[in-house]
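Reminder: ligand-aware prediction takes two inputs, not one.
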Amino acid sequence: MLRRLIRPARRLPIWLIFSITAPFVFEVLLHLWRYSVPRPASELDSPFFTTCQEPDVNAKRENAVLVMLARNHELEKANKTITSIEQHFNKWFNYPILFLNDEQWSPRFIEVLNKTARGLATFEVVPQEQWTFPEEVDVNAAKQNIKEQGEKGIPHAGEEGYHHMCRFYSGKFYKLDILKKYKWYWRLEPDVDFTCAITYDPFVQMARHKKVYGFTIALWEVGKSCPSLFRHMADWKEMMRIPSNGLWKAMVSPSWVPFPLRKFMSWLPYRDAHGDEWNLCHYWSNFEIADMDFFRTRAYQELFDYLDKKGGFYFERWGDAAVHSLAVAMLADPRQVHHFEDFGYRHDHLYQCPANAPGGQLPDSPLLGSGNWSPEMDNGIGCRCECDGRTTSNHPGFCLNRLKQPTSIKRPWYSLIL
Ligand SMILES: *[C@@H]1O[C@H](CO)[C@@H](O)[C@H](O)[C@H]1NC(C)=O
Ligand SMILES: *[C@@H]1O[C@H](CO)[C@@H](O)[C@H](O)[C@H]1NC(C)=O
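Here is what comes back for the chain with 2-acetamido-2-deoxy-beta-D-glucopyranose:
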């Protein structure tokens, strides 16, 4: 009698509980394992150079152009970026610079920037049909929605022009007549500082190492700007039967929810149809050095058209950074992505700042001249960087580490659990 009170008679035996749960636990572990990013046998993406080089001004150039989308009122900020890139790179390499605007250029902008850009500068207006709503979109509904997005405080989401810009950079700009003759581009933005000397030709190195996409900073996307983007991307990937490479896996945080229930997680934002989540990591696309032929491929253009029809460039605020990053992860080999970790770069309040390479500063270089640079530090890879050299990695570090995992043998401790 007493024993019955203390010990419920119908307690499930341990072995039964175990045999019911074990398959689910096993399935979850298998699922997590399928998303683990394989570690390469050797470093697959190293800096092209880790010291200053004597700029080879007579070397053959690539078919490349520097591109800046700007507005007339951004004259000072644009002038600052161009001053910086001329001083740190283009005075040796003289690549043409293309300025794009969605409105007519003011004569003053042209006058000032044409002077600051020492090489060939061209000033173009984006054709109206590339800078507007696609046919499928109900314009009035979109405008109303954009207003509401703005009221919700999603960054830039209340500005119609910003949506057009994101759509333009996502799928249109590679097809501009004026850009058709170029293969490579380097995207510039007003209000950027380059803080190290770039003494080699990055286009030549990208081509030599078979890279298609180069970045400086990786960080989290603002989730509210693109709740359904990842779902559509992943749906398309599945439709096209594109296998997941290491970079795609690095973008995904697999769900820990067991099998039949996991699918319900797909109702949450930034999840694919199976319930796995995009960790929102992406490359910050205000800096890009990339091969436009990648974006001109049929696969990329079809992906863009698919996304365009979903309306998310307007009914959400899908950014070109997220679109480019997920597309690169899906369609490129991780080895084709390059991190320009030797570049000093700042835009807004985010920056990357390598330390200077010990003994690698070429103090007697005739072309680099004399000047001041920050102290050299062990493991530094920068060339005459003016920043303090203490911030050697991106902010914030999680996404950079994550997106470098497919090509790097170095793993932070938390890569075991995240
Ligand atoms: C543009 O930059 C140059 C330096 O490259 C400077 O001399 C000039 O004053 C600047 N102009 C404006 C309007 O900011
Ligand atoms: C820029 O300046 C150069 C030389 O001063 C001149 O030949 C060229 O026509 C100018 N370009 C524009 C777009 O004004």
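The first strand starts at residue 64 and ends at 69. Residues 64-353+393-416 form a domain with the Spore Coat Polysaccharide Biosynthesis Protein SpsA; Chain A fold (CATH 3.90.550.10). We will return to this case in the review session.
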